[in-house]
Design a protein that fits this description.
The protein is an alpha+beta fold. A hairpin with a 2-residue loop joins β6 and β7. The protein is globular, with a radius of gyration of 18 Å. The strands form two sheets. A five-stranded mixed sheet has the order 7-6-5-8-9. A four-stranded mixed sheet has the order 3-2-1-4. It folds into two domains: 115 residues, SCP2 sterol-binding domain (Nonspecific Lipid-transfer Protein, Chain A), CATH 3.30.1050; 129 residues, SCP2 sterol-binding domain (Nonspecific Lipid-transfer Protein, Chain A, 2-Layer Sandwich).
């Protein structure tokens, strides 16, 4: 089962966090945010908060409540999740004069993002799209791991068994992220330190995509060497338990 609060953290930092990559890879997305700088703050009561800043075709994410042009408050995690699902229409407490950007530009951005995160076979047949979509999925999954570890009861149990240190995750040694454990809380970073405690590496983008889409067995890929795991096996084992929960939340 999914926990609404955990889902809200994944939706905010995981899903909306993909907008940074979307603006890097999609010319259509860059065009939508190429005008005057605009910032949107999402604030969920007793839940996550974040500011998204759009400027000159780029997107930058800041955790927490900060200076913004548009502020969207949500009284519950369920209502924020409803916005992501398209069942709840938020009303800004600030920036009503910029409602046009919210209803048009931002809405269209999320539609483009969905084509990358729920990619169709015809789109994945295009090499550039396949690469961008898979990289976005990789970073979404690594961010979701930390949110599930910190907020989901099953994830918290696994995180309680992870000692302080860093787990590196990689696709072919080129696309990388790290899961940093401190006092049984996890954070995700795109920076992988020179020294880490464990590593999980996918052979290449094609393999990673097949794993993400559930087309191949992760365990089987470990067995035949397509996925390598080295270092602290206890850390990897517990992280993989959390990874199993990612599939539940992102299904």
């Amino acid at each position: 089962m999914k926990d609404a609060k955990t889902m809200a953290y994944i939706n905010m930092y995981g899903i909306l966090g993909c907008l940074e990559d979307l603006c890097r890879y999609s010319g259509e997305a860059r065009e939508l945010v190429s005008g005057k700088p605009v910032s949107i703050c999402f604030a969920v009561k007793n839940g996550p908060s974040m500011v998204i800043r759009f400027k000159d075709g780029t997107c930058a994410i800041e955790h927490g409540i900060g200076r913004c042009d548009i502020k969207l408050p949500f009284s519950t995690c369920e209502k924020f999740n409803g916005m992501i699902d398209g069942t709840v229409t938020p009303f800004p407490s600030k920036g009503i004069t910029k409602i046009g950007f919210l209803l048009k530009n931002f809405t269209n951005l999320t539609k483009i993002m969905e084509t990358y995160l729920r990619a169709k076979p015809d789109d994945l047949a295009k090499d550039d799209f396949f690469e961008a979509s898979t990289i976005m999925m990789f970073h979404l999954i690594t961010r979701a791991i930390s949110q599930i570890a910190n907020h989901d009861k099953v994830g918290q149990f696994s995180a309680s068994n992870i000692s302080d240190g860093t787990i590196a995750m990689s696709i072919g040694g080129k696309i990388q992220a790290s899961i940093i454990a401190k006092d049984h809380k996890l954070t995700t970073s795109r920076i992988v330190p020179h020294h880490y405690n464990a590593i999980m590496e996918f052979k290449d983008l094609k393999l990673a995509r097949n794993v993400f889409d559930g087309n191949v067995s992760t365990l089987g890929c470990v067995g035949n060497g397509l996925i390598t795991m080295n270092g602290n096996l206890n850390m990897l084992d517990n992280m993989n338990r959390i990874l199993d929960r990612v599939a539940v939340y992102l299904a």
